[in-house]
Amino acid sequence: MKNNNKIMVLFDTEKEYAEIMGEYLKKNKTLGWDVHIYSDEEEFANNERSEDIALLLVSEKAYSERIGEIPEERLIILSEEGLLRNERVRYVDKYMRADDVLKEVLLIYLDIEGEEIKLHQKIKNKGTKLIGFYSPVHRCLQTGMAFTLGSMLAEEFRTLYLNFECYPGYALLASTDGRKDLSDLLYFMHENKERFILRLKTVVLKSGGLDYIPSMRTMQNLMAVDRTEWISLMEMLAESSEYDYIVLDLSEGVNGLFDVLKLCYRIFTVTEKDVRAESKLFNYEETLLMYECGDVKDRTVHIENPRIKRLPEDIGMYDKSELAEYIRRNIWEKCL
Predict the structure, then answer these.
(1) Looking at residue 28, which CATH number applies to its domain?
(2) What range defines the domain where residue 144 resides?
(3) Number of other CB atoms surrounding residue 68 within 10 Å
(4) How far, in Å, CA of 213 to CA of 254, rounded?
């Protein structure tokens, strides 16, 4: 049977790099690409036809006149020393992290004029579970618990963490240094739906095995998003088949908060042992019933703030702390 998948070729005379990067590209299922890896020019020439190659990634040192026969719009040079320059050809820094190289490659591929992109995805993914974290009680370690659960889930499942706080308070989650954030993802959502997952990959960052997207830069941006956009975003992510779990770290800044909670398989509400916290929780649950959201209340699990005295400064290391043990004892099985 003929294989209609597009072909991406990685050619680098540095064999170790070609093998490591090639395996990384093969594991990425965003496109239905077949990835072919070469470190020998003759082998490459004998096995590949120019017209069959959708995209060729070639290292600067491996580039030759024979490679030059590939149409320039389908050629990306992995820059090493910056000595080879051709204004008509795209360049990507070879020594960036593998996920950053992939992001650049996807952006270039998206920019190829007139290229029809076919995503290797299911139309519906009934298996994706949305796990919501929301509490009317603030400063209760909600974000730390949500991110840590996401990191732990990512050890076994494809997991995405999204932060909906106005100001998350963790450098890792902040939209700084020109990084894309949730607002960029919403913008991409309105483009061609077939391009959405590719765009998603250009926004996602990694902490260990966990995919995450920085929160929006300002409270005004967050609160300006309509409830229907949040619902559409969740549906598109769930239908993409990219993730087994999506962890939503929610706040009052989300328009249509109750509608988003209704989409969640499980909701965790972090509580404190004091009169004010109990009063806030009571008022919140009364409001749920007032708006006929009893199903949200039924799927909510109350979790006490464990009040762990020592946590790492880097939230990305919380999964190695006492908090991870607390989550494994009190939350883990309720997500499965």
Answers:
(1) 3.40.50.10850
(2) 129-335
(3) 13
(4) 16
Q: How far apart are CA 324 and CA 336, in angstroms?
A: 16
As for how many domains the chain has, the answer is: 2
Global pTM reads 0.71
The token pair that represents 227 in the structure block: 């409830």
Q: Are 213 and 204 in contact (CB under 8 A)?
A: yes
Q: What is the DSSP letter of 317?
A: G
Q: What is the CATH number of the domain that holds 326?
A: 3.40.50.300
Longest dimension (CA), the chain: 76
Compute and round to an integer the Cα radius of gyration of the chain: 23
Residue 215 tokens, joined: 């929160």
Residue with tokens 């909600």: 142
pLDDT tens digit sequence for 105-146: 887 777 664 443 443 333 233 478 999 999 999 889 999 999
Helix (H) or strand (E) holding 78: strand 75-79
**Separation CA 74–CA 100 (nearest Å):** 19
